[in-house]
Specification:
alpha/beta; TIM Barrel; 8-stranded parallel barrel; 11 helices; 17% strand; binds erythose-4-phosphate
């Protein structure tokens, strides 16, 4: 399973990249706001740093507007993926862009039926939001299982990009189900390293090493 970093913060992306854990990056308007920097400059820097796919979200509500935005974003880097909202206009834009060979990521997906529509429109990635479903008391990972089954039933090439990841269990479950990608917030990525037995084991090894190093 590939790891994308769900952030527009260059220093966080660099830190994860140094550990060899970044296959791509996803951004959205909220993450750009949080980074508090110029949108174009930020995306250009991320695109220069990470060779994998960098998702940039369109804001227009019409297909023509989304395609026009895509034409601008595609100039910001060779690895830009155009993020499009799950709406009828969004699917029109996905069809136009995919016919032009532009990679797309359909976002704000909350049902397997929406994922099916995105795949039929020709999306490269579909982003089901597991955390936001959990937040309203629905089982987020349940739709990942169903989307996996639907895509496998019909050999859709669209990749399942698990989004709105909130904890390491989401990542583990995504990998067990066979999702193609999980987009991971930097803090959650660091949580993956954690186990109390690793921490206590390190302390014990260091203590024991001191004994023979000073002998
Ligand atoms: C990524 O593509 C999504 O926009 C992101 O994972 C949403 O995460 P959130 O639900 O924590 O805002």
């Amino acid at each position: 399973m590939e790891f994308f970093i769900d952030s527009a913060d260059i220093s966080e992306i660099q830190k994860a990249h140094a550990m060899g854990l970044v296959d791509g990056v996803t951004t959205n308007p909220t993450l750009i706001k949080k980074a508090n920097r110029d949108h174009e400059q930020t995306i250009r820097e991320i695109s220069g740093l990470i060779p994998g796919p960098i998702s940039v979200e369109t804001l227009s509500e019409t297909a023509d507007g989304m395609v026009a935005e895509a034409d601008i974003y595609l100039k910001w880097g060779k690895n830009i993926v155009i993020k499009v909202i799950m709406t009828p206009e969004g699917m029109k834009a996905v069809r136009i862009l995919s016919e032009r060979g532009v990679r797309t990521n359909v976002t704000l997906v909350f049902t397997p039926a929406q994922a099916l529509i995105a795949a039929k429109a020709g999306a490269t990635y579909v982003s089901p939001f597991v955390g936001r479903l959990d937040d309203i008391g629905q089982a987020g990972m349940g739709i990942i299982e169903q989307i996996r089954q639907i895509f496998d039933n019909y050999s859709f090439k669209t990749k399942i990009l698990v989004a709105s990841v909130r904890n390491p269990i989401h990542i583990l479950d995504a990998a067990l189900i066979g999702a193609d990608v999980a987009t991971v917030p930097p803090a959650t990525l660091m949580q993956l390293f954690k186990h109390p037995l690793t921490d206590s084991g390190v302390q014990a090894f260091l203590q024991d090493a001191k004994a023979w190093q000073t002998a």
